[in-house]
Amino acid sequence: MKRIAVACDHGGYELKLEIIAKLKEMGLEVTDFGCDSTDAVDYPIYAEKVCDAIVDGKADFGILACGTGIGMSMAANKRRGIRAACCSDMFSTKMTRMHNDANVLCLGGRVVGPGLACDMAELFVTAEFMGGKHEKRIAMFDETRA
Questions:
Q1: Catalytic residue among 8, 51, 66, 106
Q2: Which of 33, 41, 123, 146 could link 7 by a cystine bridge, Cβ 3.0 to 4.6 Å?
Q3: What pTM was estimated for this model as a whole?
């Protein structure tokens, strides 16, 4: 069973709830790392919690939501071993898994609606990395990080 770590800031709170319901409906193991309301919080704290779960082997994938998805993506990508992609359409979501082996999907609660976000989350956790020529490129990510 795939294990999914999910977190958000205040701008992604409502979207996070929809995504968690969808992932549980799919029979996946979901860990919610917060936040727990629409009260303002600092998104890097929540990105770090999801990244820790992935790097520590406690989750297979992560999904982060903030107002645009951009802040969460930037915070998550600071971490070695994390390949976070901010997506707002199905094609980008599919390709970031297939070509980039992304392990964190970042979504904007003010950018995508709940229906699309749930479809994207499902696609993200079910699409497979193609490997092959892409493996060398993915390896280069960690080589260039400090």
A1: 66
A2: 33
A3: 0.96
Residue 110 DSSP one-character state: T
pLDDT in tens, 4-24: 999 999 999 999 999 999 999
Q: Please name which of 79, 96, 85 lies closest in space to residue 142, comparing C-alpha atoms.
A: 79
Q: Is 99 an active-site residue?
A: yes
* The one-letter amino acid at 47: A
| d(C-alpha 61, C-alpha 104), whole Å | 6
Instruction: Please say if 8 is a catalytic residue.
Output: no
Residue 27 is given by DSSP the state T
- 74-81 CB contacts, 8 Å cutoff, 24+ apart: 75/43, 75/44, 75/47, 75/48, 76/47, 76/50, 76/51, 76/104, 76/106, 79/48, 79/51, 79/55, 80/55, 80/142, 80/145, 81/51, 81/54, 81/55, 81/142
pLDDT tens-digit profile of 47-93? 999 999 999 999 999 999 999 999 999 999 999 999 999 999 999 99
Copy the structure tokens of residue 136: 């060398």
